[in-house]
Amino acid sequence: MTPEKAITIQSVEELVCKNQFGTFFGVPQDVFDRVWNNLCGPDGNSVVYISMEIGADPDTFHPVLDFLLENDFTTSGDDQTRHFINKYLHGPRKIPNYSGGLGVLAGDTLKSFADLQIPVLAVSLLYREGYFSQIVDFNVGQIDQATHWSPEQTPTLFLLRDPDEPEKPLEIPVPFYNEYDQPTMARAQVWMKLEAGEELDYFVPEFLLDYAVPSSPPWVQEAAKRLYNAKSTIMKANQRRLLGSGILPLMERLGFTARTLHLNEQHGVAVTLHLILRELEQRLGPDYHQKMSDSDILAAADQVAKRLVYTIHTPVKAGHDRFSRELYAGISHSTCQRILDLLARDEQSPNEYNFTAMAMRVNRAVNSVSRLHRDVTRRQFPDFADKITAITNGVHHLTWISEERARVFDAQPGLEDWRDDPGCFAKAALENDSGFRNNLARAWKRDNQTLVDHINTMLAEHRIQMTTTWIDPPNYLSYLHEEGVLQPGVFTIGFARRFSTYKRANLIFDDLSTLVDILIKGRYRINFVFAGKAHPQDEPGKTVLKVILDNQKDLFIRSQGLARLVFIPGYDMHVAKMMVSGVHAWLNNPKRPLEASGTSGMKAAMNGVPNISVMDGWWVEGYHGGATGWKFGHEGPIDEQSLSESPDALLYREDSLAFYRLLPEILDMFYNRPDEYLDRAIQNLKRNVPIFNTHRMAAEYVKKYNLRLTDETANRIDHFAKLYHSDPENG
């Protein structure tokens, strides 16, 4: 690899870069060429990161936009450059190709790869209808609508062009087969998101396959429209095939040579099938279909496994793709079915293919996303227990630390390098620095004001909405006019994540009488701010969301206005960033141990916000004996009962009572001992920022990638890897 070098950009025109696949904007030409050429190098010294969703909205992390504004590069005499500038300054700021934590984690990971200058390219799908747009009605609950967005107008996204006919978009042919082994050719346009590092001296290209083009069959176009489209099981299966089957054709068309493929969850595991088929052809010749034996398939799989790294993200059964053998017989080649019969068998359900089991079998390294999740995964997949390790998740600190907090960190002695090295918080003398304490408290106050202003503006808009549309505002406060507002400085608990039953969003409202008694007895004012989506096909999850709405009025009246419960519709990364920095505590109460990691609480910790959480996922590692927040709820062993998702096994009574016992202590500290509360915030910065960041996480992954790095990059990776060992027993 060419050594990294500092860059100097004298003019905005230097950010225009190009190759045979188009013209792009965001990094200088020499940076573009260096990255691209390395990804195409003959030694395959790079990685393909494969994810069904990637969350990286350019309204939460925007180094190119920041550069334009800081240098007052708001126009250009060159028409092409001026077009790009206008797009970045005024274009839409959403890429709604993510549903929640998995996709946002993928985006954060790629940002850290770019910051650390790791040779990675990413592959996902482009969904013309995004995930879905959420409307919330007070009486109905969640209403799902298609998302309408324009990738053509979105900054950081570029449609690749055909080198032979530059006026036309590039289309990648991807073959599929039916039950008669007859081929059907699908085609995909290719979008590239240029994920630039903060210094614009490196980037990670994220390629989004867009199958919703006229040249693809209707069933392909339909499956490609919306993320996690589950109108039917066959559509769900086809969407997974679109991802996995497009990876090798994309690599070959663009000239990429990566030796290692990283499956971020098993959704793209079909790429493994194609790698095995190629290995069989190389071993047995073009008529391998007739020659291959079971031992040949297993030998080919063992060879392919040397190229694959796999991350499993959930212990929840719904998160593992299973498809009936009968269904797959109708949508795949008979040779693929023979491979699946051996590698995707499900011991508990012999009539189904289990793609998580296949991903578990065919890899050189497999990891869970927290230490507790490692133990759960080993119990769920005992045949592979010996090779399951932990790499605890992180978040991209530059994305999730608020601008107000960032200004405090920039000015603080000892934190000069925090943007490049989140590990510096561990050594900084912050606890007894009165200036830092005051500045942090003021920044927190301003972030709380920003969140409150956003909510109050939303409530006012909903009051108007109720007279102009058929939607009943989702918040009881919208019906109260002057009284229906939030006040800054009131203790505010945030909760935002996918509405799935095991996450128990309504847990703390299980006994309103007990909750209200606590507030009235202490005359404590409190705000509860909730957000999140239920999957369109998850009716129980929608019911939980509706329970949140139904509790608003009763809670307000019975608490004499002390408690105010607000739901923010349309949860996305922008709302998340406001919440994790603007609340005073972050709530997480899944049924232990069903939350594999949970990254929203890490985002709060990046801002110093304490967590109130059950001992599940990352919080087992981030709790630090209570220095950074509070724990509550059941802490029993991992057994069949604890892994049950049955409604009668969700421990509502036990864990809600534990929360009610804890709440008075937290409220008393916040209102009466604010210095002690601030101590917990500072301990979050010192203890959790150095651990739960994607720079450290990326460094642990790089150790599994077997890449050849420059000395400078290797030293940085070693530094971040030493910040924390996710799995000491395998370190």
TrEMBL record:
InterPro entries: Agluc_phsphrylas (IPR011834), Glyco_trans_35 (IPR000811), Glycogen/Maltodextrin_Phosph (IPR052182), Pyridoxal_P_attach_site (IPR035090). One of its GO terms (biological process) is carbohydrate metabolic process. Its cofactor is pyridoxal 5'-phosphate. Pfam families: Phosphorylase. GO terms for molecular function: glycogen phosphorylase activity; pyridoxal phosphate binding. The modification N6-(pyridoxal phosphate)lysine is found at residue 603. Gene3D superfamilies: Glycogen Phosphorylase B (3.40.50.2000). It comes from the Bacteria. The keyword Repressor does not apply. Its EC number is 2.4.1.1. Belongs to the glycogen phosphorylase family. Phosphorylase is an important allosteric enzyme in carbohydrate metabolism. Enzymes from different sources differ in their regulatory mechanisms and in their natural substrates. However, all known phosphorylases share catalytic and structural properties. PANTHER family: GLYCOGEN PHOSPHORYLASE (PTHR42655:SF1). This is glycogen phosphorylase. It comes from Desulfolithobacter dissulfuricans. The lineage of its organism: Bacteria, Pseudomonadati, Thermodesulfobacteriota, Desulfobulbia, Desulfobulbales.
